[in-house]
Every structure is written in C-alpha cells, then in structure tokens.
Amino acid sequence: MSCAHLAATAAGCETAFTVDASRVTFGRGCLAEVGVRARALGMTRAALFTDRQLRSSPWFAEVHASLRAVAIETAIFDDVAIEPTDASFEAAAQFAREARVDGYVSLGGGSVIDTAKAANLYATYPAPLRAYVNAPVGDARAIPGPLAPHLACPTTSGTGSEVTGIAIFDWLALHAKTGIASPRLRPSEALVDPRCTSTMPASVVAASGMDVLCHAAESFTARPFSTRPAPATPTARPLSQGANPWSDLGCREALRLLGSYLERAVRDAADVEAREGVMWAATLAGIAFGNAGVHVPHAMAYAVAGHVRTFRAAGYPDAPLVPHGMAVAVNAPAVFRETGALAPVRHLEAAALLGADVRGATPADAGDVLATRVIELMRAIAIPNGIAGVGYTSADVPVLVAGTLPQQRLLGNAPCEITEPLLAALFERALAYW
Ligand SMILES: [Fe+2]
Predict the structure, then answer these.
(1) Which residues surround ligand 1, an ion (CB under 5 A)?
(2) If you classify domain 202-429 with CATH, what class do you get?
C-alpha cells in the first residue's frame, strides 16, 4: 500500500496564495480590552456567547464588566453544546435573531466560538441550515456579504477557532460531522489572553495541545498550494489552499514552541511561561491552518470521535466522548509514516522543531522520525496509545473508513491521493503505537 505523488502540472495550477487573518491582540490582561474594542467595532448591543461552566468564571465577569463599562448592552447565550450539533446551531441562531443585536462577543473554547459564528451567519442571512454547509452534506452556498462584527476570546489553547473561518458541528440525523467554511465567518478580531489557560485541567491542555500540534504539522505537510488547480475566479480560491509560505511561518514557530513547552504546560498549571507559549502556538497554528488547511489525521478524527461507544476522558463531561485533539492525535503517527516519503525535508524539519534528534536521519526515515517524536510526546502527556486506546478494534475499521471518506475537503488537501484501501491500512496501523 503506498501513497502516490499527486502530479504537479504547471499548466492550470495555482500560482498565487491569499493571506487572510483576523486582527489579533495577544497578551496577559487583554481580556479587559473587550469593551473598548467592541465599541470601536460599532457594537451597542452585543450577543455574548459562553458556556454554563464559564459563566461563573472570573473571565466571564471581566468580559461582562468591560462591556458594561462602555454602555454596551448584552444578551447572554450560555446554552452551548460541548460538541455543537445542528440543533444547537439552530437554537443559537434563533436566539440571535430574536435578541436584535449589532455584534457578537464569544468567550470560550472552539464550541462556543463556532456557535457564535453560526448564530451570526444565520441571523444576518437567514436560510435553512443546509444552505451554507459544506458539500456534499450541505449546499455550500456562498455567504452573500459581510456578517456583524464578532470579537472572539478563546479560553483554551487549542482549536484556533478565533482566527479561522470554519465552524464545525454534528448533523445528528445524518450521523455526519461537517461544517461551514468561508472567510466571511472569521471573527473580526481575536483577544487572546493566556491568563484564561491557568484554569485548564492538565488533561485538557494535553488534548488541545495535540490539536495544535496536528494543525501545525498537517498544514506544514499539506499538499503545496501550487499543485492545486487554479480557481475559475480569484474569489473562489478555497480557505484550504494548501501549504504556502505564509502558513509555513506560523507552523514552524508553533512546532518549535510545542517542542519546548507542551510537556511543561501539561505538568504544571503554574508554569506561566509554558502555558503562555502553548497559547501563542495555538494562535499561530490557527492562523496557519485557517490559511493552508489540515488533512488526513483531522479527516480520520471525525470518524474516531463520531463512533465513540464508552470512552470517557478525564477533565471532560462525564459522557462517552473522545476530545477533538485526542481523536486527531491517535491517527497522526500512522499518517506521517505514510506521507514522510512525499516531503521528507518537511517531515524531518517538523520533527526537529518538536525536539527530535534528526542527526543522521535519511529521507527514507523522515516519516518515522516525525511519527516517533509525536508518539514520545503522546506518551509523556498521557494521550491514549492509538485508536485502540479510545475503544476501537480491527473490526471497527470499515465503519471508521466509511466515516472518513465524506471528509473530502480535508482528504483533498493531503499530499497524496487517499484511497479507501489506504485509509483502512492507516486505521489498522493506528490501532496501537505502544
Ligand atoms: Fe483541530
């Protein structure tokens, strides 16, 4: 089973890439800026999205006070599902339509920020949910114009949702994890305050940190933008445009920071330097993957998370759940072993940035060297040993493959063609790494 190179034909292929990013303010204490910044964006009545747990946190109190201090009224929505669904997106959109707001502030992890994006979209341009959802599940209709301003304040160092134009949800009746992707969905500004991560449990830092690692490593090894067919019009250039010089910058620094800080950030909540370093890595990797796109480990993760039976994760709600970062990480070593031969220099560089000793490594070793370093980090921060560690066996491989194949937006961003037999082989190899 091998992964064949995609032919890079110059004729008809892309020759340019687009740099899109939100305005980002990063640093300890910047949460207090939210009111003044919301005012500057023209907000007078804001929908304030958060979750029930965060609503009693000091971070929520600070954001709420900052908005009140500049006389911005708030309509609070805290009914965000940990993994958003079609129903929870619809409920949030209905809330936003009825609340008659002129802007959005979101405080939370990726689920909260994604829910605010969807509410903003469907309140601004009402339509059936499927209208803007990615094909083939939805109609992938283009968003007609700009949305209301949205200030996103992440409280976890992981998803990067505050800087991407992507909102992910479970379409329950269809048993499909899908999403909406458009530059118009990207929050107007992100306020990234690393103090918020001081209250994250170690297990959440570990899982979300692996999500960051995979955002960076997948974007860095994604199919180069110059091998994608050029779009019919420049505005049709996709968000997932492939690895490009802009995304490479963020990926490299994110990988270096994770190599230095991820283990420390998991081990010690009081290690301010490490937690801040991982938060900055999450921001950089978010900007990078929002521009380049992730690939196979994330595509496989939808199936791994979607078919969970009994696995529960410490630090998360007491229900069957494979946290997103964990669902991605368990596939990553198998994928990098496969893709290493296609871009050996990049795989070796990623491994070195993560702290691996690559002296003497040959191009033939590249995929294994990166996979081995990722596995070392997984073991060090108590991530399960593969998909067997979150409850799967060989007998589950067909259903996992079937659950991955619809993720064409991600699979098409891989550096090689991903066939059904190859996916089956990748899941088999991902069963247990130790
Ligand atoms: Fe992710």
Answers:
(1) 211
(2) mainly alpha
